[in-house]
Design brief:
Shape: globular
CATH architecture: 4-Layer Sandwich
CATH class: Alpha Beta
Strand content: 25-35%
CATH topology: Metallo-beta-lactamase, Chain A
Distance between the termini: 6 Å
Number of domains: 1
Radius of gyration: 17 Å
Strand order of the largest sheet: 8-5-4-3-2-1-18
Number of strands: 18
Order of helices and strands: EEEHEHEHEEHEEEEEEEHEHEHEE
């Protein structure tokens, strides 16, 4: 059995004792392992986790999908809540480069504010994944996504500091996702899907040799035009995806499009839980 619990999201689902804040954190039990995937941007993530019974001191892995603040800055409060676990991140050089969003004449800092030295000090053990990394039986981290579909080009506003004062387009080479064997295909857990959710799912299928049947997390489709949403829905249908639990940077307009295509779908806000 695979259990997935949304600890932090932009929206709270039902449980009014939880807090919502722009960001994402998901707790996963699969393959005999306990995993926290992303950490939101603040202390609220850990308070939600306490209310939801997440065993912070029993975590096997702390997975960082990419290094934007709304996914990783919350880790700065991890020690306060007794969090234990091995850190797992993607391409190391890309992860620790400073991230920005270009807004007209200026740039806005989007990084998580965590240095390599700080992360290494607080976790003690770290694993780097640039391809496929097994975490447990039927549980993997996947990175190194092939970029095939032009529809999923990364917006030009995302930039990174390649060298002091030298800004270049951010290709999010550090981005990783989780994949869990449910017994009925794979469940893929994504943070923001900057490389493109279809690019990511196709890469996962090629590398693991199994079909993806469930997709959970962020897709960066918030604000996408109708054509992009329809194209993505059609591609998910082509791949044989049966269930989606999108949230965070996906928005809510995608759900009815998926439902029309016969894909079971709902918004996976904080407090939502799936058993697969």
């Amino acid at each position: 059995m695979v259990r997935i619990l949304c600890v932090m999201d932009n929206v709270v689902s039902g449980n009014k004792g939880l807090e919502a804040r722009h960001g994402l954190s998901l707790y996963l039990e699969a393959g005999g392992k306990k995993v926290l995937f992303d950490f939101g941007q603040g202390k609220e993530t850990w308070e939600n986790g306490k209310r939801l019974g997440v065993p912070f001191d029993q975590l096997d892995y702390l997975v960082f999908s990419h290094s934007h603040y709304d996914h990783c800055a919350g880790f700065l409060w991890a020690e306060e809540y007794g969090v234990k676990g091995c850190a797992v991140l993607g391409k190391e050089e890309a992860f620790f480069q400073e991230k920005y969003g270009k807004e007209k004449e200026w740039s806005v800092y989007l990084g998580c504010g965590i240095s390599k030295a700080y992360l290494w000090e607080k976790t003690g053990q770290q694993w780097i994944c640039e391809d496929v990394l097994a975490l447990g039986e039927g549980l993997w981290v996947v990175g190194g996504f092939e970029r095939i579909h032009p529809q999923e080009a990364i917006p030009a506003r995302f930039i990174r500091e390649a060298a002091r004062g030298v800004m270049v387009p951010d290709s999010f080479d550090e981005e990783i996702c989780l994949a869990a064997d449910t017994g009925n295909g794979l469940a893929v857990i994504a943070g923001c899907s900057h490389p493109g959710i279809i690019n990511m799912l196709e890469t996962v299928e090629r590398k693991l040799g199994q079909p993806v049947r469930t997709v959970i997390g962020g897709t960066h489709l918030l604000g996408a035009d109708k054509e992009r949403l329809l194209w993505t829905g059609a591609q998910l249908k082509r791949l044989g995806v049966e269930l989606t639990a999108f949230n965070h940077c996906t928005g809510t307009e995608f759900v009815p499009i998926l439902t029309e295509k016969g894909i079971r779908s709902g918004y996976f806000g904080a407090g939502s839980c799936l058993y697969l």
